[in-house]
Design brief:
209 residues, mainly alpha, 8 helices
Length: 209
């Protein structure tokens, strides 16, 4: 029962026992379990597992992906503009990608660059970027305007981040609203069942044949 008043014979102590000896302990155990799982998923050894799971969650997967790509491109552009060589610029930029799974693919392409693979080919080999952006970088390599092309690529992925963030907020709002409605509906049904079950039990107990 949700409230002691649902008992026709006012079994208040039974209600208190249910709340303090069953409901609250169960709620606390669930909260502690969720907290421990959260802490476990955020230890360094679980970075790849956590980020792989993130990339499987609808809407939020795209946000995580776009954030990582945008961070990589911004840093690559800054290092390249500062005169850092392509290999060292890639090495510095790949480490700022927040998602460990995406970072692994960037590390793989870094290995290719150490084998004298050109920057735009390593960019393509990641399989992470849109074809249009790959073509832009290739054009920039041929024309000697790599920094300008990286600027355009960075703008493209920052716009993707903004769109993905808006979608994620919209989805969170709808998930919260749906969850709230389900909980409200469940609570109303539970109250109605508890109340009428108490009345029927009271009648059966005191007036049964």
């Amino acid at each position: 029962p949700l409230f002691p008043t649902v008992f026709p014979n006012a079994q208040f102590m039974q209600y208190v026992k249910l709340v303090f000896l069953r409901n609250i302990p169960i709620g606390c155990l669930v909260m502690i379990g969720c907290w421990l799982y959260w802490k476990w998923m955020h230890i360094p050894q679980n970075d790849v597992r956590r980020d792989r799971l993130t990339l499987k969650i609808p809407v939020f997967a795209n946000l995580s992906r776009q954030r990582s790509l945008a961070a990589f491109i911004r840093m690559l552009r800054k290092l390249y503009q500062a005169g850092v060589g392509p290999i060292n610029a890639w090495e510095g930029a790949m480490n700022v990608a927040p998602n460990a799974v995406i970072r692994e693919r960037l590390v793989h392409s870094y290995g290719l660059m150490q084998k004298n693979v050109p920057l735009h080919d390593a960019f393509t080999q990641t399989g992470l970027f849109a074809n249009e952006m790959e073509n832009l970088l290739a054009t920039g390599m041929v024309a000697g305007q790599v920094v300008d092309m990286l600027d355009k690529i960075a703008e493209y992925y920052q716009a993707n981040v903004d769109r993905a963030f808006s979608r994620a907020k919209y989805s969170m709002y709808h998930v919260a609203l749906t969850t709230f409605l389900i909980l409200i509906g469940f609570t109303i049904c539970w109250m109605a069942y508890s109340y009428f079950a108490g009345i029927f039990n009271y009648v059966d107990t005191n007036f049964g044949s």
